[in-house]
Amino acid sequence: MKTLYIERSAGGGRDGGWSTALDLDGVGRIVVGTGPGSFAGIRSALAFAIGVGLGSGCEVMGLPSPCACAAQKLDEEGEIAVVGDSRRGKAWVSVFSGYSMEGDVFQVDLADVNSAVPLACKVVSPDDARIGGALGAAFGERYLGHVEPTSEGLGKFAAKNPLALVADPRPIYLNPAVRD
To answer: With 22 labelled, which of 48, 88, 120, 127 sits at a CA distance of 20 to 30 A?
Structure first.
C-alpha cells in the first residue's frame, strides 16, 4: 500500500504550498504528525489529510511528531528524549526506548527539564534556536542539538513500530495557541 507521510509540526509553508508537490496518485494511507508544535502547521496537515481521506477513501493515521525526530537518532543512541519549547518557561518532553514511546508527551518547567529525562537518554530538540542554550546547560554532552521533524522520520518510525499509529488522529496541544 502506498503511504504518504506528512510532518508539519515545525511550521513553515503556512500558505499550503507544500501540499501542491505531493503525489497523491494511488495513496492508500496518509500518516500525519500530530504535534506538539506549530498550531498552524499541525492543523493544516491534519485538515489536508482528513480531506484527502474523505475524498479518496484512503486511511488517515496519526503519529506524535517527536517520533519523527527520535527516528533519526534511535539507531545510533537507543534511548532518546525529544524536548521542545512549550513557551512561557515550559518544555515538552517525549522519551523513547528504541522505537517505543515511553508514555505520552508531557510538559515540565524548563528549569526542571533535567530531572524529567532519564539519565540513560541523549537529548535532541526541534527548537534548538529557542531553548538550545538551556538544554545544553542542563544536559551537557548528552544534548545532541537540533533535529528537525521530517516526513521521512515519521515514515521510518511508522515502519519500525506500526503499532504506534493512531486511527482518528487529533492534534497534541499542551497549551492554548501562542503568537511569537
So the answer is: 127
